[in-house]
Write a structure and sequence with these properties.
The complex is a heterodimer of chains A (422) and B (151). Chain A is α/β, with parallel strands linked by helices and 422 residues long. Chain A is 37% helix and 16% strand. Chain B is α+β, with helices and mostly antiparallel strands and 151 residues long. Chain B has a single domain, classed as Alpha-Beta Complex (Sufe protein. Chain: A), CATH 3.90.1010. In chain B, 46% of the residues lie in helices and 18% in strands. A 3-stranded antiparallel beta sheet of chain B has the order 1-2-3, covered by helices on one side. In chain B, β1 and β2 form a beta hairpin. Chain B is globular and about 45 Å long. The relative contact order of chain B is 0.22. The structure holds pyridoxal-5'-phosphate (PLP).
Chain lengths: 422, 151
């Protein structure tokens, strides 16, 4: 268990003032980073510096502040592109969050369905298929489900095994010649499963479907390189990767972005406009109508710098170690059942569980009394809950700043839960 | 926070030994309510006989607060008049919305005053009210079927 990681957790923790926050008479043990991560001072400081020193709208003014703001915003785009191994910064579209990024894509398909001149890859006809998995966050399910309903396409999904893994054996049946799009979660937010991607992407390629990832839970935690993954798009969200809320990313291959009709229209996304018609700017501007989240982009770039300074391999190693420890310790709690993979292989440090006879709401409440912050509920993954026959789970999730001691506190507090409800 | 204040003995007792649980016939109104944040659910039936609540029956999944609340609801309104039941509903709702300020009248609310502490926890107020919302809805439905219009 004593894997040597190069992450100096104490030094990391010093960058996160909120970890000193007292809940009752104890500092919070924050084990809810899968919902949202905390932000280091470097991120807060970068945003403050920008706001106090360079704030202006972008791409609209010739004044010094406008130029600085534009440079900061476009610099952030380049920074994010480099972080995920994107060949060009122009392939990075800033959105509000993952949810908007996925909707942007879904609405591109929907708009293309109405346009006979649209790229055939995007034109869904009745009977065409969209494939997801049973372990999606609602953000990567509902947009596709609704798109299917509106276009007559069929939504299909890859199921989950009892061990919380994707049923990869079914892939050749689920992804067929009629499949036009496969969108699946890279790391599952309820189960913690890290999905192997190559088999699904290979099958998608074989049938000529577009394929991409909901990378909301992977980009923050493991090295992600879009070129190596060989996918057409990924979506992720700033607030889960030490960055601010209000900014997310859609990365897609340049030729796909070129082919996609815009989702939102308005200012800053045009080439020419008359009262009758508009020609759109090139991507990414085409997809960034209106004033974008500028300070948030600056914050996201600072978050990416921070993660890079830690090294994503070290982040992964640290979390693998915590995942192993958490699983091992949780197994010692009477009546506790882990929902999801029970070994720290191909899994993140996000662990969902049920406690026999005690509802997750009650678990969360007692844990809060012990200053242990976890999430309870269906985690926006109701079909996953249904698959495992539960209404809700308790979910503990660790990140760069978490320690073994905090996991011990979780396990101890679970003992208290058992006492209250025995 | 003070856990004992939230999880009063009375609440834990109703949770562990729910009164009146299970779905029964006959009934005139049925309501299904879901708390979308946690997925808790209740199906609740009301049997009205004249101006009396002749039976309240229910099936639910949920946390201790929501289950205990349904059990307390059963004790309070089962066998009472419709008007009294509506008065208890109003009282309990007011108590839950009191943000920790209300105490509740033990004369009328009986065991339900134990929920006063819950009103301090906005995330849990919804749990406590789930069964009551189902009761209100089922009663409206029952009255729609039986043609009663004065409630
Ligand atoms: C796997 C996954 N996809 C999508 C989302 C949605 O992210 P956001 O709410 O920032 O759009 C989340 C987080 O809530 C998630 O865990």
């Amino acid at each position: 268990m004593e894997a040597v990681t190069k992450l100096d957790v104490e030094a990391v923790r010093a960058d996160f003032p909120i970890l000193k926050r007292m809940i009752g008479d104890r500092p919070v043990a924050y084990l809810d980073s899968a919902a949202t991560s905390q932000k280091p001072v470097q991120v807060v400081e970068a945003m403050r510096r920008f706001t106090e020193h360079s704030n202006a709208n972008i791409s609209r003014s010739v004044h010094t502040l406008g130029a600085e703001a534009t440079e900061a915003y476009e610099g952030a785009r380049a920074r994010v592109a480099a972080f995920i191994g994107a060949p060009s910064a122009d392939e990075v579209v800033f959105t509000k969050n993952s949810t908007e990024a996925i909707n942007l894509l879904a609405y591109a398909f929907q708009n293309a369905a109405l346009d006979p001149h649209a790229d055939p890859r995007l034109r869904l006809a009745p009977g065409d298929e969209i494939v997801v998995t049973e372990m999606e966050h609602h953000a990567n399910l509902i947009p596709w489900q609704q798109l299917a309903r509106r276009t007559g396409a069929v939504l299909k999904w890859i199921g989950i095994t009892d061990h919380g893994r994707l049923d990869l054996e079914s892939v050749p049946e689920v992804i067929t010649e009629r499949t036009k799009l496969v969108s699946f979660t890279h790391v599952a937010n309820l189960l913690g499963t890290v999905n192997p991607t190559s088999q699904i992407t290979a099958r998608a390629r074989e049938v000529g479907a577009l394929v991409g990832l909901d990378a909301s839970q992977s980009v923050p935690h493991i090295p992600v390189n879009v070129a190596e993954l060989g996918v057409d798009f990924i979506a992720f969200t700033g607030h889960k990767m030490l960055g601010p809320t209000g900014i997310g990313v859609l990365w897609a291959k340049a030729d796909l972005l070129d082919a996609m009709p815009p989702f939102l229209t308005g200012g800053s996304m045009i080439k020419t406009v008359t009262m009758e018609q508009t020609t759109f700017a090139e991507a990414p501007a085409k997809f960034e109508a209106g004033t974008p989240p500028i300070a948030e982009a600056v914050g996201l770039a600072a978050a990416v710098d921070y993660l890079d300074s830690l090294g994503m391999e070290n982040v992964r190693a640290h979390e693998k170690e915590l995942a192993g420890y958490m699983l091992e310790r949780l197994e010692t709690v009477d009546g506790l059942t882990v929902i999801g993979p029970r070994v720290p292989i191909g899994r993140s440090a996000t662990v969902s569980f049920t406690l026999e006879g005690v509802h997750p709401h009650d678990v969360g409440q007692v844990l809060d009394a012990e200053a242990v912050a976890v999430r309870v509920g269906h985690h926006c993954a109701k079909p996953t809950c249904d698959r495992f026959g539960v209404n809700a789970t308790t979910r503990a999730s660790a990140y760069v700043y978490n320690t073994h001691e905090e996991i011990d506190r979780l396990v101890e507090a679970l003992g208290r839960v058992r006492k209250v409800f025995s | 926070m003070n856990l004992d204040e939230l999880y009063q003995e009375v609440i834990l007792d109703h949770y562990k030994r729910p009164r009146g649980a299970g779905l029964r016939e006959p009934y005139e109104g049925e309501s299904h309510q879901v708390n979308p944040t946690c997925g808790d659910e209740i199906t609740l039936r009301v049997h009205v006989d004249g101006d009396k609540i002749a039976d309240v029956s229910y099936e639910n999944v949920g946390c201790s607060i929501s289950k205990a609340s349904a059990s307390v609801l059963y004790e309070l309104v089962n066998g009472s008049t419709v008007d009294d039941a509506l008065a208890r509903l109003a009282e309990f709702t007011e108590l839950m919305n009191s943000k920790g300020q209300g105490e509740g009248d033990e004369e009328t609310l009986e065991d339900a005053v134990a929920f006063a502490g819950v009103s301090k926890y906005p995330m849990r107020v919804k749990c406590a009210l789930l069964g009551w919302m189902a009761f209100k809805d089922a009663l409206v439905r029952a009255e729609a079927t039986s043609g009663r219009t004065d409630a």
